[in-house]
Amino acid sequence: MNETLRRMKESGAADGTGSAITEDVNDPNGYFSSMFTTGPSPMGAHGAKEIPLDLIDPWRDAEHDAQPFKPYSADKLAELAENIRQNGVISPIRLRLSPFEKGRYQILAGHNRVAASKLAGQKTIPAILMQATDDEAKLILIDSNLYQRDHLLPSEKAWAYKMRLDTLKRKAGRPAKENSCSVCTNFRADEAVAENTQVSARTIQNFIRLTFLISPLLDMVDAEAIPFTAGVSISFLSSEAQQLLLTVMRDNDVKSITRSQGEELKAFKSQMDDETILRIFGKSLKAHTVKPQIIKLQVDYSPAITRRLAKDETLQARIRAVIDAYIKETAK
User: Fold this and answer.
1) Residues 197-220: what's their mean pLDDT?
2) Could you tell me which of 189, 53, 22, 162 has the C-alpha nearest to residue 115?
3) Which domains does the chain possess?
4) Number of C-beta neighbours around residue 33 at 10 A
5) Which helix (H) or strand (E) covers residue 107, if one does?
6) Mean pLDDT in the chain?
7) HEC sequence for 234-297
8) What does each C-alpha distance from 222 to 156, 179, 214, 219, 235 come to in angstroms?
9) What's the CA gap between 295 and 159, in Å, rounded?
10) 198 falls in which pLDDT band (50, 70, 90)?
């Protein structure tokens, strides 16, 4: 059994029946190490009880309007709903009293089970009620997904790791700065690696870098049109440069970015313009050329003359010169 899951099961953290493994965040240089230690807060020995689904709200707080994890696809949710129809909800969800509205509950773990139960026509769902502060609630939310989901998108891991790190820093008395990435500079890459997850501090740093991507580019990382390492490189571009990159890609039908192109884009971040971007993509794309356009002119000449004029290159050059001059004149 995975060491983390073993420790969680022995402590009761995995099923909500015991106390969670505590975290030591007193060491200001140990944030990444603590990120690999499971269990955000004492959970208490609470049994599950049936809670009406219409009293349950998704998780949110003042800093983050929604959780970083995306809901199941329609097919996967339908599959889970059918399983619930036949077997019920086997693993209770985790709830806390809503900090926003009296008499309601907030999901800490189990958003997809709640959605599937509603789809299955259920009226209630088994839940374990927990007492948790906002920071503890975040850690429960993050850990329950990081350690239990079979597959997570890069964007989900990126925002989850960032939220977890910001929370740990705040608990240790170091408030996180808005849009800061001290995580990328203040910690050693060879810091402790978790035996249970085999995820290094450097990997965590790189995931958090992805949160600096604008949404369309981060979606391309999720879709594997941009490799993870290329996404990390591009994240060092300013938001304006990233938007320019996206515009150039769309205008020139560029569907993907390679790892080497990502490294070049990062290298030219201080002098990013259309030509630079096109030159970088030109290594793997056809030369950027303007497709010739046809302008129709109405004339009263005979078909024989018009056919001859259509093949006259000298005439065509003179017409282009007149058009160029007209464009310059009207542009003033």
Assistant:
1) 87
2) 53
3) 3-210 (3.90.1530.10), 211-281 (no CATH)
4) 18
5) strand 105-109
6) 76
7) HCCCCHHHHHHHHHHHHHCCCCCCCHHHHHHHHHCHHHCCHHHHHHHHCCCCCCCCCCCCCCCC
8) 9, 21, 13, 5, 14
9) 52
10) low
